[in-house]
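Re: that backbone. Tokens:
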């Protein structure tokens, strides 16, 4: 009883702080609750996995994705089924919200603010007697012909050598910078904004992008820490942008986000902050993995040469 009163009091104070302090836009608190309710209405029974021939109990990884066909009311659609399992620790995900419900809410939110995302078919979860989340899943409709952004860029616009490639690259940059600004304007931070979580497709020179896989994102209305979260979203995008994009293209992205000229001090300062954050947070690990991969390739070539060497 005491705990319930404390939580209600804290939530009341938090809500007044968010709204009266203008940390959130007017009505956004209700908007968050509305998206929570929309996601809650998409909950499915666990038996759906049996119908899709997915055995969650046999999965040993933290998550796994299956391609299936989902049929309801004589309508069949191609879907992706992502299953999360929590078997690492007996207290893992105890009394915590499921990632599948959060991801469903976030994808619905994306679409409602104009960011294309796959349609959420539903989600589900199982808890044990102690309330610990054991397994969960989310089902999203497949996007025909879409591939991860890095694969798309390599094949459809690898560089600026041709005008058509340059136009495609500029269109991609402008769209993602606009959508990132939209997210942050709502005090929402993705926290997992890698190129692999952006799908791209092209049809008659019309490029369509879709944001997927956002179980870690959420609203962060408190003013402290928002700048760091903003840098993290940029730095995750910059992990591959530094390899596939020119310096001018990366500045174009920052310029579109800040709505400032590319040569302005604001763009210069923010670009430097993003690069510094990326170098500290991501570059050492990325460079290590790249060196290990190259070393493994060289070792494989050496082993192959030894094996094929005439005796």
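Recovered sequence:
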């Amino acid at each position: 009883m005491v705990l319930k009163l404390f939580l209600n009091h804290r939530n009341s104070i938090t809500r007044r702080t968010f709204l009266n302090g203008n940390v959130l836009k007017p009505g956004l608190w209700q908007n968050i609750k509305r998206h929570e309710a929309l996601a809650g209405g998409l909950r499915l029974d666990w038996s759906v996995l049996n119908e899709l021939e997915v055995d969650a109990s046999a999965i040993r990884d933290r998550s796994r994705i299956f391609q299936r066909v989902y049929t309801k009311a004589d309508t069949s659609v191609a879907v992706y089924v992502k299953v999360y399992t929590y078997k690492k620790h007996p207290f893992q995900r105890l009394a915590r919200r499921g990632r599948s419900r959060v991801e469903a809410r976030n994808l619905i939110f994306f679409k409602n603010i104009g960011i294309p995302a796959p349609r959420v078919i539903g989600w589900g979860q199982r808890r044990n007697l102690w309330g610990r989340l054991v397994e969960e899943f989310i089902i999203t409709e497949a996007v025909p012909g879409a591939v991860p952004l890095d694969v798309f860029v390599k094949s459809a616009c690898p560089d600026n050598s041709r005008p058509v490639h340059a136009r495609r690259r500029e269109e991609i940059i402008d769209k993602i910078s606009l959508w990132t600004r939209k997210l942050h304007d709502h005090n929402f931070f993705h926290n997992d904004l890698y190129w692999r979580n952006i799908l791209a497709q092209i049809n008659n020179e019309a490029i369509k992008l879709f944001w997927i896989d956002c179980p870690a994102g959420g609203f962060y209305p408190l003013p402290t820490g928002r700048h760091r979260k903003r840098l993290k979203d940029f730095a995750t995008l910059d992990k591959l942008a530094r390899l596939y994009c020119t310096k001018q293209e990366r500045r174009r992205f920052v310029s579109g986000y800040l709505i400032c000229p590319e040569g302005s001090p604001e763009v210069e300062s923010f670009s430097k902050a993003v690069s510094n954050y990326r170098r500290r947070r991501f570059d050492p690990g990325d460079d290590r993995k790249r060196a290990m991969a190259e070393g493994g390739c060289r070792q494989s070539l050496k082993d192959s040469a030894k094996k094929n060497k005439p005796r």
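The mean pLDDT is 86. The radius of gyration is 22 Å.
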